[in-house]
């Protein structure tokens, strides 16, 4: 196959995200209960006793009509005055209809805030899709100005998407100002429950790509009982890495006992050695065991300056952006991504990766269950694939990106015709 030179252009910036600032209103508070008027409670029975007593005295004295009933009428007038003064002296109570109207107004305001937040979340998803495209659409990038755009000094160098899931909303995309919420018995239950659900849901973005920085740990492991399903996930990851990273910056090395299952990989220029050749041309970086890899690449593996892996500052394996590559790392040449297709013993791998990893090398382990060595060390390094869902640290992580072998072959053959050149 004839090669065509490819000169990387300046990287196109991702679309800018205007931040959405939303100040969420406080929920309603229950109206205060009216205190009981003790004087009124005492005066009413006393007045009733006085009126009844007056009537009894009048009846006993021989008065049978109310023509001279000035005093009982005065008592009744006083009783009415007490009743009305007690009612009018109180604060005006909120009626059920008014309270329902306030609830509806608050819920409408939450709906408006939700629409604004979702617009910002949609922009965040589109921005992330621009940086990390769906692996099923990588052919739109191959041969274009964005192919191999990530360089060693870029913050997202060696970041790769694993699937689509739920992520906390970035502060740069949505800035939410939460209100002071009434506590305990002061909180109105309907609007309080609505605000609680609003906070739980709107602080997250659904359907966004989940990205891992391969430089944040010396190795990672993908675990699954179904070998073909595991290979489909690995194809999606490796093809995305090959499309966005130049062979000058990244080499993909495979160690497997079943090279026929990885026939598509040998088309990638990232799987070819820059200097070593064989009967088919540039030597493919496919080995049957860790010992074969160590023997073939001994000089580069133990190159002067390649010390043990050290954690980059301020990084997380499941967030982006990644830390910048150090100057010492760039002196080691292309970064090595070694794919272990469930081969070798821990002792054999220790000669390649050391006990805790090597600088400039990331190991990707594919296995049915967790083992021993680099990539299996901690929960933050292990991802379990069940069906098409990825689990991380015992919780759902993402719906995995899966790629068919035919699609991976098409991508690899399209990349094979290109060779990196400098302007």
Task: Please outline the helices and strands.
Layout: E1 4-7, E2 20-23, H1 38-60, H2 70-88, H3 96-131, E3 159-168, E4 174-177, H4 189-202, E5 204-213, E6 219-223, H5 227-244, E7 250-255, E8 272-278, E9 281-284, E10 286-287, H6 290-296, H7 298-301, H8 327-331, E11 335-340, H9 346-353, E12 361-367, E13 382-386, E14 389-392, E15 395-400, H10 405-416, E16 418-421
Parallel strand pairs: 1-16, 2-4, 6-12, 6-13, 7-10, 7-11, 11-12
Antiparallel strand pairs: 3-5, 3-15, 8-9, 13-14, 14-15
Helix pairs in contact: 1-2, 3-4, 5-10, 6-9
Average pLDDT, rounded to a whole number, is: 84
Radius of gyration: 37 Å
The best one-word shape is elongated
Count of separate DSSP helical elements: 10
Low-confidence stretches: 319-328
SSE order in H/E notation? Answer: EEHHHEEHEEHEEEEHHHEHEEEEHE
Proportion of strand residues: 15-25%
- Main sheet attributes: strand count, strand direction, barrel closure: 10 strands, mixed
Distance between the termini: 23 Å
**How much helix is in the residues?**
25-40%
Overall number of strands = 16
Name the structural class. Answer: alpha/beta
Question: In what order do the strands lie side by side in the largest sheet?
Answer: 5-3-15-14-13-6-12-11-7-10
Task: Offer a few descriptive terms.
alpha/beta; about 425 residues; two-stranded parallel sheet; about 20% strand
Q: What report would you give on this structure?
A:
This protein has 423 residues and is of the alpha/beta class. Helix content is 35%, strand content 21%. It is built from ten helices and 16 strands. It has helices at 38-60, 70-88, 96-131, 189-202, 227-244, 290-296, 298-301, 327-331, 346-353, 405-416; strands at residues 4-7, 20-23, 159-168, 174-177, 204-213, 219-223, 250-255, 272-278, 281-284, 286-287, 335-340, 361-367, 382-386, 389-392, 395-400, 418-421. The strands form four sheets. The protein has a ten-stranded mixed beta sheet with strand order 5-3-15-14-13-6-12-11-7-10. Strands 1-16 form a two-stranded parallel ribbon. A hairpin with a 2-residue loop joins strand 13 (382-386) and strand 14 (389-392). Helix 5 (227-244) runs parallel beside helix 10 and helix 6 runs parallel beside helix 9. The two termini are 23 Å apart.
């Amino acid at each position: 196959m004839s090669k065509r030179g490819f000169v990387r252009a300046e990287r196109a910036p991702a679309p800018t995200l205007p931040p959405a600032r939303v100040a969420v209103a406080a929920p309603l508070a229950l109206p205060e209960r009216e205190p009981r008027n003790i004087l009124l409670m005492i005066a009413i029975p006393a007045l009733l006793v006085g009126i009844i007593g007056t009537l009894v005295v009048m009846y006993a004295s021989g008065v049978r009509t109310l023509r001279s009933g000035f005093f009982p009428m005065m008592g009744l007038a006083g009783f009415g005055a007490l009743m009305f003064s007690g009612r009018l002296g109180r604060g005006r109570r909120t009626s059920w209809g008014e309270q329902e109207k306030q609830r509806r107004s608050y819920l409408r305001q939450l709906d408006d805030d939700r629409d604004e937040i979702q617009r910002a979340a949609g922009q965040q998803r589109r921005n992330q899709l621009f940086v990390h495209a769906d692996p099923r659409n990588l052919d739109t990038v191959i041969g274009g100005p964005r192919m191999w755009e990530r360089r060693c000094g870029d913050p997202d160098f060696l970041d790769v998407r694993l699937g689509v899931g739920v992520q906390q909303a970035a502060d740069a995309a949505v800035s939410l100002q939460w209100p002071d919420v009434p506590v305990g018995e002061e909180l109105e239950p309907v609007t309080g429950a609505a605000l609680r659900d609003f906070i739980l849901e709107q602080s997250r973005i659904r359907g966004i790509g989940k990205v891992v920085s391969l430089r944040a740990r010396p190795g990672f492991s993908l675990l699954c009982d179904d070998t073909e399903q595991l290979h489909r996930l690995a194809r999606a990851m490796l093809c995305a890495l090959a499309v966005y990273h130049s062979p000058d910056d990244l080499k993909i090395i495979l160690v497997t006992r079943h090279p026929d299952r990885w026939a598509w990989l040998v088309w990638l220029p990232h799987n070819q050695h820059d200097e070593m050749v064989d009967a088919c041309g540039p030597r493919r970086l496919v080995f049957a065991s860790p010992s074969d890899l160590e023997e073939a690449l001994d000089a580069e593996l133990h190159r002067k300056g390649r010390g043990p892996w050290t954690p980059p500052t301020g990084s997380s394996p499941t967030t982006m952006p990644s830390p910048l590559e150090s100057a010492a790392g760039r002196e080691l040449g292309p970064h090595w991504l070694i794919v272990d297709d469930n081969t070798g013993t821990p002792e054999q791998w220790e000669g390649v990766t050391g006990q805790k990893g090597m600088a400039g090398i990331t190991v990707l382990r594919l296995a049915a269950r967790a083992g021993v060595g680099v990539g299996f060390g901690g929960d933050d390094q292990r991802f379990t694939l069940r069906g098409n869902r990825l689990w991380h640290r015992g919780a759902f992580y993402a719906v995995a990106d899966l790629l068919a072998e035919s699609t991976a072959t098409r991508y690899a053959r399209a990349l094979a015709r290109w060779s990196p050149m400098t302007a």
